[in-house]
Design a protein that fits this description.
The protein has about 290 residues and is α/β, with parallel strands linked by helices. It folds into three domains: about 80 residues, Winged helix-like DNA-binding domain superfamily/Winged helix DNA-binding domain (Arc Repressor Mutant, subunit A); about 90 residues, D-Maltodextrin-Binding Protein, domain 2 (3-Layer(aba) Sandwich), CATH 3.40.190; about 100 residues, D-Maltodextrin-Binding Protein, domain 2 (3-Layer(aba) Sandwich), CATH 3.40.190.10. About 40% of the residues lie in helices and about 25% in strands. It contains ten helices and 13 strands. The strands form three sheets. Strands 3, 4, 5, 6, 7, 10, 11, 12 and 13 form a nine-stranded mixed beta sheet that branches. It has a two-stranded antiparallel ribbon with strand order 1-2. α1 crosses α2, α1 packs across α3 and α2 packs across α3.
Length: about 290
């Protein structure tokens, strides 16, 4: 059976105080509690550490050797606690963040310089995937996910929402004409996702209610690929504001069927495991994102 921290502390306190009574006062425990801790320790080590008389307590040779190692162990624990306290004050260490490529490029990357200036001791590792990943398998601290989250053992923290819009480039519309109704989309090149199929239901009012199912002429796994295709004038696309706001501000993409568009805002959340204590570096990263994206 392994020795415990309580037993080691009791042993050192008796040596330093010169008696069990003094050790009990130092540690805020009862005399009987200190005596039992010493007895357990000596039994586990199968040796006598202290010679106890009515007047004094002396270390045996074995006790002297064990005391040196015990002091080193307790000093190491104190150092570790101080180090962790310092990390809480100034977060440090590697932070592995996973997100879909568009969100990483358009939302996270622009914030990296300011984050690194605020938290220079945090080393960011930025990974991208277009589908949900297993955080444990990929050794990921926090993943940013877009859309409704399935039930899981992951803890979720909302960061912001982002509106969906149907968009096209002025060049494409000049060549093909601007659609005036949902029915007009049938004669246009529609850019959609490979998966999930729900992303190919555009927020347009019509015969299908507030979600218009499209038949894509071309599909891709990444919203960034679809954005680039739309910018090149290949077709019409439905994308989130977080990745197209700058394009719309420059006039590179324009909204179509605006009057028929339902305001649908995609929730954007950070997920991490519930059964792990939220490390300071994860907390400060999520606080930083939420403050600037929310």
């Amino acid at each position: 059976m392994k020795t415990t921290l309580e037993e080691l502390q009791a042993f050192v306190a008796v040596v330093d105080g010169g008696s069990i009574t003094a050790a009990a006062d130092t540690l805020g425990q009862t005399v009987s509690g200190i005596s039992r801790a010493l007895a357990r320790l000596e039994k586990k080590l199968d040796t006598t550490l202290l010679r106890r008389t009515t007047r004094r307590t002396e270390l045996t040779e074995e006790g002297q050797a064990f005391l040196q190692r015990t002091r080193a162990i307790l000093a190491s624990i104190d150092d570790a606690e101080e180090h962790m306290a310092a990390r809480r004050q100034q977060p440090a260490g590697r932070l592995r963040v996973n997100a879909a490529t568009p969100f990483m490029l358009h939302a996270v990357v622009p914030l990296v310089p300011a984050f690194r200036k605020a938290y220079p001791q945090i080393t960011l590792q930025l990974d991208t995937d277009e589908t949900y990943i297993d955080l444990l398998e990929r050794r990921t601290d926090v993943a940013i996910r877009i859309g409704q989250l399935p039930d899981s053992t992951l803890h979720a923290r909302p960061l912001c929402t982002s509106r969906l819009r149907v968009l096209a480039s002025p060049d494409y519309l000049a060549r093909t004409g601007r659609p005036k109704s949902e029915a007009d989309l049938a004669r246009h090149t529609l850019l959609g996702f490979n998966q999930p199929e729900s992303l190919n239901h555009w927020p347009l009012r019509g015969a299908h209610g507030d979600a218009w199912p499209i038949v894509p002429s071309l599909t891709a796994s990444s919203g960034e690929t679809l954005r680039q295709l739309a910018l090149q004038g290949v077709g019409i696309v439905c994308l989130s504001d977080f990745m197209t706001a700058a394009d719309r501000a420059r006039g590179d993409l324009v909204q179509v069927l605006a009057k028929d568009t339902v305001e649908v805002r995609q929730p954007i959340s950070a997920v991490y495991y519930r059964n792990t204590q939220l490390a300071a570096r994860i907390a400060c990263f999520l606080d930083f994102l939420q403050e600037r994206l929310g």
